[in-house]
């Protein structure tokens, strides 16, 4: 490997570390959670992934309502489903 190739490789490694997960953003360090750990946390909380296909207009209404209430989309959909199933 040439000296210039080695320098390029080192620079790529450095740039990857700077932009990778856990990199500081304006003094804040994000918590690094990989997909496996997030899956374990979700399972411990009793959460199950549930994918559905919805009309775009309905999704826009849900997004607007979630933003208005200041809640996560998952929380809003769960709340609405509980209310709908109870009725």
What report would you give on this structure?
This protein has 87 residues and is mostly helical. The chain has helices at residues 3-19, 35-44, 56-69, 73-86, and strands at residues 24-25, 28-29. Strands 1-2 form a two-stranded antiparallel ribbon.
Summarize the structure.
This protein is 63% helix and 5% strand. The radius of gyration is 21 Å and the shape is elongated.
Q: Write out the strand line-up for the largest beta sheet, numbering strands in chain order.
A: 1-2
Average pLDDT, to the nearest integer? Answer: 84
Give me the strand/helix succession.
Answer: HEEHHH
What kind of sheet is the major sheet?
2 strands, antiparallel
Number of helices: 4
State the end-to-end distance: 70 Å
Dominant shape: elongated
Stretches with pLDDT under 50, minimum 5 residues: none
Task: Set out the fold topology.
Layout: H1 3-19, E1 24-25, E2 28-29, H2 35-44, H3 56-69, H4 73-86
Antiparallel strand pairs: 1-2
